Every structure is written in C-alpha cells, then in structure tokens.
Amino acid sequence: xxxxxxxxxxxxxxVIEEYEDIREATPALATLQTPGLVIEDHLTRTLGYWNRDRxxxxxxxxxxxxGCWSDVVAVLKHEMAHQVVDExxxxxxxxxxxxxxxxxxxxxxxxxxxxxxxxxxxxxxxxMRRKIEKLLALGQSTNHHExxxxxxxxxELALRYNVRMIESAATRSHRFRxxxxxxxxxxxxxxxxxxxxxxxxxxxxxxxxxxGQHEMLQDGNRQIELYGTEQNLDMAEYxxxxxxxxxxxxxxxxxxxxxxxKGRRDKASFLRGVYAGFRSKLDAERHALxxxxxLVWTGDPSxxxxxxxxxxxVSTRTVGSTVNPHVHDAGVAVGEKLKVHRPxxxxxxxxxxxxxx
Length: 357
Hints:
Layout: H1 5-24, E1 36-40, E2 48-51, E3 56-60, H2 61-66, H3 69-87, H4 99-108, H5 123-138, H6 144-167, E4 174-183, H7 188-200, E5 204-209, E6 222-229, H8 230-257, H9 263-293, H10 301-310, H11 325-335
Parallel strand pairs: 1-3
Antiparallel strand pairs: 2-3, 4-6, 5-6
Helix pairs in contact: 1-3, 3-4, 5-6, 7-8, 7-9, 8-9, 9-11
C-alpha cells in the first residue's frame, strides 16, 4: 500500500502547520527554520529520522496509514529535537541521544527515551474486516440476487458491529484521515459523496482549509477529512473513492449514449443524480434493517466528542447549483442500481481504492 499523491500532499501541509505551531509555542525555538518535510511510504524500519545534510525530517507513511495524529506529532517532535541539537544548540560532538538531545526534548515537552509501536488491530476487528471483504467480493456474482444479498449483508455486518460497540461501551480509538483531491472550491458532487459516507458509514467529515505562511502552503485550499475508528475509516475511504471513480465512469458512458449531454452543468447534474439515487438505495436498506432486525444507528457519542475537540468552530453551509432535470433524473436511475462490490486489492495500482490496510 502507498499513499496517493493528493493524500500525501494534504498530510504534508498539515505536518508543516503542526511544525510551525510547535515552534511558535516555544520562544526558545524562534530562530529554528522549517526544514524540508518528507513522507516516505517505503520507510518501514523506523517511523522517522532527521537528515542533517539535506535539512529534512522524514516521516514514515505507516504513521499516516495506521497511526493517529498524536502519533504523528510525537515522532515529529522527536525529530525536531534532533534538529534543535544541530541548529539551535549547534552541537554535533555527542551521541544522538546524549545530554544536549535531552535538553532539546525538554524544550519540546517530550521524553528523550520514548519509543513507539503502532498498535495492532484487535482480533475482532480483523475478523469483521475479513467477513466484509468476502461479502464485497461476492457482490461481483453474476447472480443478481446473490450479489444483492451479499452487499446487503456487508452493510448489516458493519452496522451490527458498530451498534454492539456502542452498547457495550467498548473503548474506541478515533482518528482522522484525509481523502480526495485538494480544491480551491470543492465541487457539489464531492460534497454529496462526503455526506453519503458520513451518513451511512459511521464517520464524520469536515473540509479542512489550509492556511499558513510557509511557501508550500496555498491559502484557501480545501480537502475532505474523515473522522472515525480505523476500521470505519477504511470502509468509508474505500466507498468515497469508489463512488467518485464510478460516478466518472457512469458519466462517460452516459455521454456516449446521449450526444447532447455535455458541459460542466450536465455533468454536475448527472453526478448529483447518481449520488441521490445511491442515497435512496441506502436509505431503503437502513429502513429494512430497522424494521426487520431492529438494527438502528443512533450515533457514537465518543466520536462526536473527538470530532468537536478537533474542530471546535465548524460551520455548515448549503451547496446548491442549478441542474438539468432530465440529466439529473437519468443519474438517479443509475445511482439506484449502483453496487459497491469491487474486490479488495493491495499494491500501487489501487492504493486510493483500498478497504483494508
């Protein structure tokens, strides 16, 4: 697995912002210059290191795939301490973790001998993931009824697992993850997809706006961030990319069959219709689970608290645009038949479409 370029770029901007916030909060580090910050996806033997010759802090992609943001910050501060030794205390005559390094750690408020190991997922989570993977694969069946049953069962399994976790008050480790491209203005159909995964796949979302003085930052760029448990983020991320890709494919096929359909307005109308149709299908499935099996999702208070703690000043707005009703209705018909059934793959060719990490 590797991080797609847009995702890596979004994480880099966040790391830069974090670095500058840490420096500004520590007056003794006022002269410290922001180094090059790199996310290296193939770095697996260590979670990060300071390269003094290139003035770079290199972080492992594993941190962003499997860790939470506090893990990223902890590794970042550790490598910043090495930079402080070189560029603030200007000392290179001692061992990597000697007395001067400990002074740098004290400035940054971290333990000098701290070690970190990214936690493995509980056995119950792995079991749930394997079952969902098999059901999604069955969704490819040429037998229409078998495919529909498998996909409905995958959705039921995810709902049942999350309801059980809430009812048992089990400890839930929440994280956030960036998905999708960066935009100056997020298109209406991308908002529609973000709303879908938030409403049906047990996550929250926000559009993160980048702002800062660093040369890499472009003020006003926006990117979607999802919040939830790691297993729910995996599922929501998979569905997010699947819907964007499938929507694009369906639009291309629709254009070929309707030569008069063209332009940005028709495309936006069609895609909004596709996602509206898919939403109505998921609504019907949720209603069936509630009436036939008494499975009702009422939310996750711990996720609500986690989201609010990270986004205390979130505002909401309505995104609207004019639509071509005929093209929109055609999109709805397509969306009502849409199936999230693509098999799980791993490797560079499908990094952005993964379910399992």
